[in-house]
Amino acid sequence: MTTAARPTFEPARGGRGKGEGDLSALSKQYSSRDLPGHTKIKYRQPTQDAPEEVRARDFRRELEERERVAAREKTRERGPRGWHGRRNALSMTHCALNFTKNLWRNM
């Protein structure tokens, strides 16, 4: 059996030696982590959705307007229906080859 499994008859006690009674008297240095932080509360500015401003807004109208703008931009990017954008030379060649192949197959 090891000695770690046995109880100590004389437990270690601090505070009896020179300078061990008051630990704050040992040093006047302190860590920056011991300093208080976040000591000020930030308040909302008038343009940061104060409760008075929120009550006066019509969120449904704003949302519908944003959705209309997004849908308009999406259709502008995609183009009109049935239009697949510009075709590059490779896709045009591929198209022509398929057309020719289908012509020979149907003869």
From TrEMBL:
Composition skew (Basic and acidic residues), residue ranges: 66-80
Keywords (A to Z) from UniProt: mRNA processing, mRNA splicing, Spliceosome
Superkingdom field: Eukaryota
Pfam family, one: Cwf_Cwc_15
Alphabetized InterPro entries for the sequence: Cwf_Cwc_15
Single GO biological process annotation from the record: mRNA cis splicing, via spliceosome
Keyword Zinc carried by entry: no
Any Gene Ontology CC annotation: catalytic step 2 spliceosome
Gene Ontology MF terms in the entry: RNA binding
Location of the region described as Disordered in the Swiss-Prot/TrEMBL record: 1-53, 66-86
PANTHER family in the record: CELL CYCLE CONTROL PROTEIN CWF15, SPLICEOSOME-ASSOCIATED PROTEIN CWC15 HOMOLOG
Protein family per UniProt: Belongs to the CWC15 family.
Name of protein: CWC15 spliceosome associated protein homolog
